[in-house]
Amino acid sequence: RRALDKLNKKLFVNNEAPSPEILQDVFVREVLAPTVRCLADPVEKCRELSIAMLQSAADNLPDATPLLPQVIPMVLDRIGKIPVVEPSEEIRLSLVELLSGNMVKRVDVETMMSIKNDLLTILSRSAEDAFHEIVKKVSTSIVAVSATLPQGALESHMGTLLKSLVPQLQHRHSQVRLTVFKAVDALIMNGASEELFLRTVLPAVQKLVVDHTANIRSYVMEAIGRWMLHVKCAEYNDPTVPK
After folding, report:
1. Cβ-Cβ contacts under 8 Å for 166 (sequence gap 6 or more)
2. Residues 34, 41: contact at Cβ < 8 Å?
3. Is the pLDDT of residue 243 over 70?
4. pLDDT value at position 233?
5. What share of the chain is helix, strand, coil (3-state, %, to 5)?
6. 191 in the Ramachandran plot: left (φ > 0), alpha (ψ -120 to 50) or beta?
7. Is residue 119 within 8 Å of residue 72, measured between CB atoms?
8. Closest Cα to residue 96, out of 115, 116, 70, 72?
9. In terms of C-beta density within 10 A (0-12 exposed, 13-18 middle, 19 or more buried), how is residue 45 classed?
10. pTM for the full model?
11. Residues with Cβ < 8 Å from 96, sequence gap 6 or more?
12. What pLDDT score does 118 carry?
């Protein structure tokens, strides 16, 4: 615990931090692997400090690309499987925050594609978490991932992601509904199939058109306008499709 705290301050906080080139080499070669292992430490404070260190690395390393492939397998073990291993809501939230910030935003497409399946499994599972702040961060991460990956790259996970997100569109907190809807919007624009769009998304979105929160209604109507231009729906007039 003390070592993690002292190392984080020395590398990323204090004025005596090494040059960017040395920081990159030392962190990736010597610090990254043991820090990732601490994500499974039995002491919650150690897990918290290791997450803080990884976030600092994602924000400050000249090249954040090496981080995600090392971090994803451990995060998958902690929060991406059933039953979820990580007992702390705050730690689960912090792990998802890692995947919604610079660790994802600063990675290249090739690296993102290499860890895509595990990352999307984590996000699908976490979208069903009972803690609403986690659901919001998952949604933010899905927007970031959708912006990074090429059109259609999410196709194999689209159904699972949407089926995890769509029930949250009825959440009692308006900010959760809005953030989740933005994630659904990003998935639609990345290439959701006609069937998923008609059968899974539209029935839920209909309720948001008359949401009591004005900015949700406004965003939904703007998104529907985009979808009409983007989604090819040959069956849109099918009477069996809920209207």
Report:
1. 184, 200, 201, 204
2. no
3. no
4. 56
5. 75, 0, 25
6. left
7. yes
8. 72
9. exposed
10. 0.89
11. 79, 122, 123, 126, 134, 137, 138, 141
12. 97
